[in-house]
Design goal:
Helix 3 crosses helix 5. This protein is about 50% helix and about 5% strand. By secondary structure, the chain is mostly helical.
Length: about 200
C-alpha cells in the first residue's frame, strides 16, 4: 500500500477541522401558532377621553351622512331608499361598522382620531366580538335615548353599554400605522409611477 505523505496527512487534518468547524444545523424551535391564537399587537388598556370618542363618532356619521344623501341619487335608488333597500342598507352598515372594527379595531372615524377598539386581552376584537358591539350594543345604547353612549362619562373604564355588552375597550393607538385600506391615505408617494432609467 502506498504511504501517505505529509501533504496528504495535513490535507486530511484540515478537512477534518473544516468538518468540525462547520456550524451545526439550525435546531432552534419554530414558533407554531395554534388555531385560535392571535399574534397581533397588544395595546395597553388605558381608556381615552369621551370627547375623543365623540370626535371619532362625528367623523363616522359625517361619512355615513354622505352615503345617505348622495347614495340614492348615485345608485338610482338602490341604497337608502326606504324599505325596499333594507337588505342593502344592512349590508352596507355591516361593512362600515362591523368589519373594520373586527379586522382592525378601527372605523374610519377612530382611525382619524387615533383610537382603537380592543378586547380584554388588549388585542383587536375580531368580527365575532364586533357583531354584538356594533349591531346589538350600539342599537340598544342609541335606543335608550343615547344613555348607553353617555354611560362612558361615568364609567371607570370609559365604557359605553355597547362596550360592556361586547367586553371591549377603546384606547389610544400607540403606533402610527393605518388599518387595512386606509394605510395608503396620506402617502401620495406610493401612487407615483417609478421612472425607468
Amino acid at each position: 500500500m502506498p504511504r501517505k505523505t505529509r501533504s496528504d496527512k495535513s490535507a486530511g487534518k484540515s478537512g477534518d477541522k473544516r468538518k468540525q468547524a462547520s456550524p451545526p444545523p439550525n435546531t432552534a424551535p419554530t414558533t407554531i401558532i395554534e388555531p385560535g391564537q392571535r399574534p397581533e399587537k397588544i395595546y395597553p388598556r388605558v381608556p381615552v377621553h369621551p370627547l375623543l370618542r365623540l370626535y371619532a363618532y362625528a367623523v363616522d356619521w359625517f361619512i355615513v351622512g354622505i352615503f345617505i344623501f348622495i347614495g340614492p341619487a348615485v345608485t338610482g335608488g338602490l341604497i337608502f331608499s326606504g324599505r325596499d333597500t333594507a337588505v342593502q342598507d344592512i349590508v352596507l352598515g355591516f361593512s362600515f361598522w362591523v368589519l373594520p372594527t373586527g379586522f382592525w379595531g378601527q372605523s374610519p372615524g377612530k382611525w382619524v382620531a387615533g383610537i382603537i377598539v380592543i378586547d380584554r386581552d388588549g388585542r383587536v376584537p375580531g368580527v365575532a366580538q364586533a357583531i354584538p358591539r356594533e349591531m346589538v350594543g350600539r342599537v340598544v345604547s342609541i335606543a335608550a335615548l343615547f344613555v348607553g353612549l353617555a354611560w362612558m362619562v361615568k364609567s371607570e373604564n370609559r365604557q359605553g353599554w355597547h362596550d360592556i355588552i361586547a367586553g371591549t375597550y377603546v384606547v389610544k393607538k400607540t403606533d402610527s400605522t393605518a388599518p387595512g385600506p386606509f394605510k395608503y391615505l396620506g402617502r401620495p408617494e406610493l401612487f407615483k409611477r417609478r421612472h425607468r432609467n
